[in-house]
Amino acid sequence: MTRSLWLIDQQQSSPSLFISFKFNLRFCDLSSILEPGRPVRTDKSAILDDTIRILNQLKNEAQELKETNEKLLEEIKTLKLLSVFSRLSRAHQARLPKKTALL
């Protein structure tokens, strides 16, 4: 019997066991995503703890990146304004009469 036929047979004969089996598979998938390359953990509590820890780390990193992005956008605005003022200042200086040196 192939695996898919076995799963269908299990689903029909014992729906609660099938749901539990699928649930366990999803936890194994989650464990392998959290720590690729390591053996899959089966302790659901540990998997959930790891998931919460990693999600909190990602949330903090996302917040830090958002703050850095906002600072960089402000810096870009400042630099653009400085560039505009610099061009205006050079244009204004070019219009002023040149001072002659007194001998």
Automatic annotation (TrEMBL):
Keyword Nucleotide-binding among record annotations: no
UniProt GO MF annotations: DNA-binding transcription factor activity; protein dimerization activity
Chain segments annotated as coiled-coil in the UniProt record: 48-82
One CC-aspect GO term: nucleus
Keyword set includes RNA-binding: no
GO-annotated biological processes: intracellular iron ion homeostasis
Protein localization: Nucleus
SUPFAM superfamilies: HLH, helix-loop-helix DNA-binding domain
Keywords: Coiled coil, Nucleus, Transcription, Transcription regulation
Principal location class: nucleus
Superkingdom as given in the UniProt entry: Eukaryota
InterPro entries (alphabetical): HLH_DNA-bd_sf (IPR036638), ILR3-like (IPR044818)
Signal peptide: none
PANTHER family in UniProt: BHLH TRANSCRIPTION FACTOR (PTHR46133), TRANSCRIPTION FACTOR BHLH104 (PTHR46133:SF9)
Protein name: Uncharacterized protein
Taxonomic lineage from the root: Eukaryota, Viridiplantae, Streptophyta, Embryophyta, Tracheophyta
